[in-house]
Amino acid sequence: MAESAGPAPRKFQVRFWGVRGTIPCPGPDTLRYGGNTSCIEVICGERHLVFDAGTGIRELGKFYSAKGCAVDAHIFLTHTHIDHINGLPFFRPAYSSENCFSLWAGHLLAQGQAIKPVLQQLMAAPFFPVPLDGMQAAWSFHDFRAGEVLRPHEGIALHTLPLNHPGGATAYRIEFDGRAVAIVTDTEHVRGRPDQSIIEFISGCEFMVYDSTYTDEIFPRFKGWGHSTWQEGVRLCKAAAVPRLVTFHHDPDNGDDDLDRIGELARQALPGALVAREGMVLDV
User: pLDDT per residue over 243-252, tens digit each?
Assistant: First the structure.
């Protein structure tokens, strides 16, 4: 009698709803990769985790609304620079009392701030006509210190790491069903000195999503801006023996053809490299 196979791996997927940094850049030059800013959905079994609320979250909201069922999800912010939160006021499920959201941020406590007041400032005059309290969904707000381990649901662990970015930012390592993936944005590296904390953080991951705003060639012109390069992402993956890199937080000045070229070069350096594009779904 043949031995029965073990239980099938549970669903663990990463969906990209917004892949740009800095500013949305819709137009004919960005049709294939997309022009929305940062938003990534991670599906762990039946649970949905959302990372960042850039303009890509509007598309995610339309997707949730079309399903016609109540949404219960966690939203984890890497930080609160405008390109990572400017989609939140336009997140359709936030305005339905049937839905429930928990929103997390790991960079503000060190500055003596908290996430709810920051978002209240965003959604207030003279910037926006509808206040945060006008969102009828059930909301809870959670501040933590980057470096803590979060456990939003049984069987899901989120390790966090502070990043080198003006005002602070948080990386997330999502562990589920014996597998792991890391989202590392926004961060600025030091040339010639790979960040050992990131190398340790991503070790054992199936892939890393990494801030690849610049290239090594133009990086020196943007010192202090808080971003990295796809080449540094390759170096980190090689140092940590991570087989796949997903370049992310694309420069808004890079059109589809530019990202095609970056993808070709990245794959030459690391065969498992990919360029994130809106709508892309990766199994972990």
Answer: 999 999 999 9
